[in-house]
Write a structure and sequence with these properties.
With 123 residues, this protein is of the alpha/beta class. It is 18% helix and 46% strand. The protein has two helices and eight strands.
């Protein structure tokens, strides 16, 4: 029935600023931009997936339920990536830690709109 998830979309009242944050802080590669009055978004390539950050008229302000959905960015070393992103001013709510149920490490950070995202990978 379902084959895959094609991409992830983060809606924002201020999508251009949020997309710029992802590009500057995480170094994501911009792959496109849609500028239609009813569909405005900026896309990034993340491995085999695409992350789109777009405007939605029903989204206002920062995320008020930060823990509901978290997306994981797979990295080789969580600790090294944590250090690099911290130096760029990324705010982490959880420093690198080992998962309690399997052999991976995580670190959780907050984006400009208050969405929580995680790094996952080796130590």
């Amino acid at each position: 029935m379902f084959k895959t998830i094609s991409d992830v979309i983060i809606w924002s009242e201020h999508y251009k600023e949020l997309a710029q944050w992802y590009q500057e802080k995480l170094g994501l590669e911009k792959i496109g931009e849609v500028n239609h009055p009813k569909d405005m978004c900026i896309g990034f390539k993340v491995g085999q997936m695409e992350l789109w950050i777009g405007f939605h008229d029903k989204v206002k302000g920062k995320n008020s339920d930060k823990y509901r959905i978290m997306h994981n960015f797979v990295v080789d070393s969580v600790t090294e990536t944590y250090q690099k992103l911290s130096e760029k001013g990324v705010s982490f709510i959880a420093k690198p830690f080992k998962a309690p149920t399997f052999d991976k490490y995580f670190a959780t950070f907050e984006d400009l709109d208050g969405n929580f995202m995680q790094l996952i990978g080796g130590k």
